[in-house]
Amino acid sequence: MKKPTHTIKLKEGFCDAVLEGRKTFEIRYNDRGYQTGDLVRFSPVDSADRIVQHRIADKLYEITYVLSGWGIPDDYVVFAIKEWNESV
Asked: What pLDDT digit, counting tens, does each position of 6-64 carry?
């Protein structure tokens, strides 16, 4: 079964923290209906929102938890991510 995959921009300054496992969450406007089990591919961008080269672009991450409400603005979610390994 193919998992839904979201390609979303990620500021270049956050890319290493995600790759190293120090940043394990995203706060996003929920215009895509993010769900636990969906996959995320990051498109690294610079401060001017231009696509840049970064090794995170070759990785996939799985959404492991989605939180809304609890003081999070309407239409926003916080979701937890972990690197996705298709063989697991």
From this structure: 999 999 999 999 999 999 999 999 999 999 999 999 999 999 999 999 999 999 999 99
DSSP β-bridge partners for residue 80 = 25, 65
Q: What is the bridge-based pairing of β-strands 76-83 and 61-67?
A: antiparallel
Architecture of 5-83 per CATH?
Roll (2.30)
Starting at the edge strand found earlier in the chain, the sheet holding 25-29 runs: 5-11, 39-45, 61-67, 76-83, 25-29
- Residue 49 · residue 13 · CB < 8 Å: no
* CA–CA gap between residue 82 and residue 79 (Å, rounded): 10
Q: What is the model's pTM?
A: 0.91
